[in-house]
Amino acid sequence: MPDPIYTPKTCREPAYQLDWSYSVFWHQTPTDFSWLEELKQLNEKDGIRILQHEFQEPKVSQFLISTRPQVAPLIIAQRVKGRLQRLVRDTIPNAFQRNYGLRSIGSTRREKLDHYLASQLNHHPMADERVNERLKRYQIHHPHLDLSNPRQTSHAQYWYNLHIVLVNDGRYMEIRDELLQGLQKMIVNAANAKGHWLSRAAIVSDHIHLTLGCKLEESPEEVVLSYMNNLAHACGMKAVFRDGYYVGTFSEYDFWVIPRPSAESSAPPSKLGEGVGVV
User: CATH 3.30.70.1290 residue ranges in the chain?
Assistant: First the structure.
């Protein structure tokens, strides 16, 4: 196996917006929530930022969480719930049920994002209409893979949807049939091999958008780098993309459906990393 071209070291400054609604279920209603600040501090070092907590009946703690690309959703569940159990063990020794819910959320809802990807060729038309017709043949859409549906494990119901953007190095415009066909085939094969729900791939001349559902144990960073390296392999093991990427979470819901504790939250929560515009 050749060494990967794209690694965490070569892609040190990705743009990202990774946010989650995480629900844990208590055995009994807690009366003390003084643990929240300490729980925030304990998880911050792992790239898990607790932005908000709200308790709701029946016996549900709902957290709004932001993470770094290196953090797999499974780690969110393990760290937050495990550390909270330790913080309350003196008063509630067996605090939680084993099941939990996790939903990726974002600043844009799934329907709007899907429409945006579907219209990429109109957003980025080529001067030669023959090239536009050629690019149309390499778009990928799998409407039967509905990312609004949850995935399940023995203890979790979850939605883990990612929007990935890869930009060609130097904004090079790739319009050769054999390369476009290779990219299309590799995206489909990689998604099938990894068990991803590939909803849509918008392949334009100088960048690629992907929307897909992933597995809990995979970090966003792992997912993105695997596609970057697979696509580089399809192009003859060449560094075809910039040493960076955009990755964001999304679902049926966005930030605006989450109640805010105060008026100061009039915009989506601040992120752990710097964001950039999505092409």
Answer: 19-103, 106-255
Do residues 91 and 38 touch, judged by C-beta distance below 8 A?
A: no
Residue 168 carries which DSSP code? B
pLDDT by 10s per residue, the chain, length 279: 678 999 999 998 999 999 999 999 999 999 999 999 999 999 999 999 999 999 998 899 999 999 999 999 999 999 999 999 999 999 999 999 999 999 999 988 999 999 999 999 999 999 999 999 999 999 999 999 999 999 999 999 999 999 999 999 999 999 999 999 999 999 999 999 999 999 999 999 999 999 999 999 999 999 999 999 999 999 999 999 999 999 999 999 876 666 655 433 334 444 444 434 456
Which are the contacts of 249, defined by CB distance < 8 A and separation ≥ 6? 17, 18, 19, 20, 104, 105, 106, 160, 161, 162, 163, 220
Rounded to whole angstroms, the Cα distance separating 136 from 88 reads 56
For 215, the token pair is 């597995």
What is the number of alpha carbons within 13 Å of residue 264 lying toward its C-beta? Answer: 5
19-103 CATH, one of 3.40.30.10, 3.40.1440.10, 3.30.70.1290, 3.90.226.10: 3.30.70.1290
Q: Are the C-beta atoms of residues 19 and 249 closer than 8 Å to each other?
A: yes
* Structure-token pair, residue 226: 């695997």
Global pTM value: 0.91
CATH entry, 106-255, from 3.30.70.1290, 2.40.240.20, 3.40.640.10, 3.40.50.300? 3.30.70.1290
Which pair of tokens denotes residue 95?
A: 């605090």
